[in-house]
Amino acid sequence: MDKKQLLVAFRDRAADYYEEVEATTSTYKEKAATLNRKIVQYRENYIQEIISDMNDDDDRLDAVLLVTYVSYIVMLEFRNRIWPYEYMAFSRRIGELWEPFCKLPFEYPLNELSIYTPPDIEDVKRTLKKEISELVDNLHIEKAEKAKLLQYYQAIWALIDNGGNISLTLDLHFEQYAEYYNVDYKSGFSSNEKGNTNRLLLVASIYKSLPDTHNNLIFVRQAKEQNNHYLQTLKNSGLWDVYCADDTYTKITEFTGFDIREWMTANMDWSNDILPDFRDYLQANDLIKYLTW
């Protein structure tokens, strides 16, 4: 796999897609979305072709990461041609790309692990209700007191349900050595994270109530000092194990057996891999600083 050749291949294909969407009467937002979908589909087809004959897990993951990284570069370049980035959109987009990239070692792991489907909240509620009912029935108290305890239990769930539909689905769920891991990826914690923080505390507390061993992890792209107090709230809750920046990559390596930080250092050079005109645009608009993983 050669990065320069891949960049040529993806840019040539993206140029064809660019001409197609530019010939339409769609809005610039619709053109950007269409172009993005086409590049993603090209990437997925490319990945399936190149890994079909690879028997070595390490080589397979290396190829997938490189093709994905190259596709990100080209997606950013051509999106900027159609709809020039401003700082909020660009910083958000970099975070959106970071999450699926960091999930790839779990999809193609070198260590033994398996992705699992998170439980449905209604199933969890039924299981917990049954367990609570059995527990209360075995208490040496009057029937009226048992009924009152069950009413309190139902009232708690009613309060939770009033907060909106609860989903136990996070960004990544995997099982390793008879323990379950639930992972939430975050580019960073900013001033508008209160609602998400409360949701994460609730979800983690539900996982902790399950009979199996569930470990709740937060992987953050930004360095610890760049995040606000909401991240500290989660870290201090006792419900989440929080990892930031290089600590995140160390943990990914521990689970998957693949040193993703070492790979990124050896293969990713955003400033020099992007086209000069795109780099000039990012520098002129003080956006180049967001190309840090």
Secondary-structure topology with pairs:
Elements: H1 3-22, H2 28-51, H3 57-82, H4 87-107, E1 114-115, H5 121-137, H6 143-162, E2 172-176, E3 179-186, H7 194-209, E4 214-220, H8 229-236, E5 241-244, H9 246-256, H10 260-267, H11 270-273, H12 276-284
Parallel strand pairs: 3-4, 4-5
Antiparallel strand pairs: 1-2, 2-3
Would you kindly provide a written description of the structure presented here, covering whatever features stand out?
63% of the residues lie in helices and 9% in strands. The protein is an alpha/beta fold and 293 residues long. It folds into three domains: 3-110 and 259-290, no CATH class; 121-162, no CATH class; 169-256, no CATH class. Strand 4, helix 8 and strand 5 form a beta-alpha-beta unit. The radius of gyration is 23 Å and the shape is elongated. The two termini are 22 Å apart.
pLDDT < 50 stretches: none
* Percent in helix: 55-70%
Rg over CA atoms:
23 Å
Strand/helix succession: HHHHEHHEEHEHEHHHH
Strand order of the largest sheet: 1-2-3-4-5
Q: What's the end-to-end separation, in Å?
A: 22 Å
Number of helices: 12
Mean pLDDT: 92
Total strand segments: 5
The best one-word shape is: elongated
Largest sheet: 5 strands, mixed
Structural class: alpha/beta
Count of folded domains:
3
